[in-house]
C-alpha cells in the first residue's frame, strides 16, 4: 500500500495563462496593427477621415465619409451613427481575473479543477471574439512526459466539439466555459456541462464571442486535470493564450 501511494503522489501542477489585451482605439487616423508571435492583423481607417483630434483647448470626435453619420433623436428612439460614438461610449477592453492557475498536489483518479473569469467590454459594430490555444499539453520538461489533452468520457471530444467528462478513469487536461454575464460562451459547452481540449498553437478556437455591444460581459473558464497511477511525478506546465479581437 505504501508503494502504491508513492506512485500516485504528484507534485504541484501549474498552468500559466498569458493575457494579450487588444485595446483598439479610433483616436488616430493611422492604420491599426495587432500582433504577437502567431499572427499579425493590419487594418486601415474605415472612413474618409475619422479620429479624436484634441489639444489643450478642444477635444473632438469625428467621422467623415460614412453614410449618414450623426445623432438622430425621436420621441421614442435615439440613434448614434458613426464610429465616433462607438469610440466614446464603450472602449474595447479585455481582462482575465487570474493568470496563474495552480492545481496543487494531485493524485490519480481524483480530478482537480480551477477557474478564472474573462471579461470583455465591447462597443464595436460587429461584436468581438476571444480565442484560446495552448503552446503544448501539460509538460514535465525534465523527463519529456506529458499529460495528454482530454478526449472526455467518449474519447472523441475535440477542440470544436465539447463533450461530457465525468468518469474518473478518463484522463487528461481540458477546459469548460460557463456564462456569468451575457451568453457569450461557445454554445457547445452547454453552460459548463461539457469540456474540450485546447487547440494547439498556432491554431486557436473561439471560446467566447458576441455580435452585440455591452459592458462587463463575463464567462468563467474551468480548467480540469485528471491523471492515472502510471503518470510520472513532477511539475507540469504549459501556456494558454487568450486573444480578444473586436470586429468592425
Low-confidence stretches: 1-31
Structural classification: mainly beta
Q: Count the helices. How many?
A: 2
For the record, the count of structural domains works out to 2
Please write the string of helix (H) and strand (E) elements: HEEEEEEEHEEEEEEEEEE
Number of strands: 17
- Characterize the overall form: elongated
CATH architecture tag of the largest domain: Sandwich
- Helix percent band: under 10%
Seen as an oligomer or otherwise, the chain set is: single chain
The CATH class of the largest domain is identified as: Mainly Beta
The end-to-end span amounts to 61 Å
How does the major sheet shape up?
5 strands, mixed
Q: From the alpha-carbon coordinates, what is the Rg to the nearest angstrom?
A: 22 Å
**Average pLDDT score:** 82
Tell me the strand order in the biggest sheet. Answer: 9-1-17-11-15
CATH topology tier name of the largest domain: Immunoglobulin-like
Strand content: 35-45%
